[in-house]
Write a structure and sequence with these properties.
2 domains; Rossmann fold; binds pantoate; 20% strand; alpha/beta; 37% helix; Pantoate--beta-alanine Ligase, Chain: A,domain 2; 7-stranded mixed beta sheet; 3-stranded antiparallel beta sheet
Length: 290
């Protein structure tokens, strides 16, 4: 029931995935799942390495999920390179690639979605209507299909990670959700499959995203009021050459509501555009005294 891409075994169906995982389980092996949309970079490979530390077997999924893209977003042009991804996964000693078709994930008559609640309302939720319903639905399906002990997600999509933690708790999905730190280029730019869209000029501006939110964290640490620090950050991004800033907000790290007190852990989150490319990033704002 498994195909092969180079040396990497590939499951295309839920049944083939479940079969393989069941064999590992019978042998007493723990299983980690790393859900991705492909176009793999070092950030994804760090998640595979993280999974390998936590479990005996690692399954990576690649599925460019149409339901999490808006009508005017980049679903059609999202980078796809299954053979290249498979080679990277094999080199990272991933045990199995799960690469279902759209028909396998959303067969005719598919009608049920997962509504992720208040965590999905602010930040990206305001700018990408329906996005997190698509994410929550596909992630719930992937978790239930794989039946892994643990699933690893990057902190780069911080709001997504909080939503996934909530959904696993709320739907009693018995897979532990693990977040892993953002992997960055030497100049601070967070790795993203979408960085491939940047022109050389845009790529030169892009590190200002990380630089600015790091400066916002420093300013708040030095006593700047939260709204003032956030407004300074947005102005700084505009000065650096970002055409449009969807948001730069300082939120409660757990609820994602505007941070009300420095006695709780915060998160500085940003989404901004360079030409047609939307970049996101975030950084921890430790609670005062921490
Ligand atoms: O972060 C991603 O790549 C995607 O949103 C995910 C979690 C694989 C769901 O499609």
């Amino acid at each position: 029931m498994l195909e092969r891409l180079g040396s990497l075994p590939v499951a295309r169906s839920v049944a083939a995935l479940r079969d393989e995982v069941a064999q590992w389980r019978r042998a007493g092996e723990a299983v980690a799942l790393v859900p991705t949309m492909g176009a793999l970079h070092q950030g994804h490979l760090a998640l595979i390495a993280h999974g390998k530390k936590l479990a005996d077997r690692v399954v990576a999924s690649i599925f460019v999920n149409p339901t999490q893209f808006g009508p005017n977003e980049d679903f059609a042009r999202y980078p796809r390179d299954e053979a290249g991804d498979a080679a990277k996964l094999a080199a990272a000693q991933c045990d199995l690639l799960y690469a279902p078709t759209v028909g396998e994930m959303y067969p005719a008559g598919f009608a049920t979605t997962v509504s992720p609640g208040p965590l999905a309302e602010p930040l990206d939720g305001r700018f990408r209507p329906g996005h997190f319903t698509g994410v929550a639905t596909v992630v719930a399906k992937l978790l239930l299909q794989a039946g892994a002990d643990v699933a690893c997600f990057g902190e780069k999509d911080y709001q997504q990670l909080q939503i996934i933690r909530r959904l696993a708790r709320d739907l009693d999905i018995p897979t532990r959700i693990e977040g892993a730190p953002i992997v960055r280029e030497a100049d601070g730019l967070a790795l993203s499959s979408r960085n491939a869209y940047l022109s050389p000029e845009q790529r030169a501006i892009a590190p200002a995203l990380h630089r600015t939110i790091a400066a916002v964290v420093t300013r708040v640490g030095d006593g700047a009021p939260l709204p003032e620090a956030a407004a300074w950050g947005a102005a700084e991004l505009a000065r650096a050459g970002f055409a449009k800033i969807d948001y730069l907000e300082i939120c409660d790290a757990e609820t994602l509501l505007p941070l009300a007190t420095r006695e709780r852990s915060g998160r500085v989150l940003v989404a901004a555009w360079l030409g047609m490319t939307r970049l996101i990033d975030n950084l921890a704002l430790p609670r005062s005294g921490a």
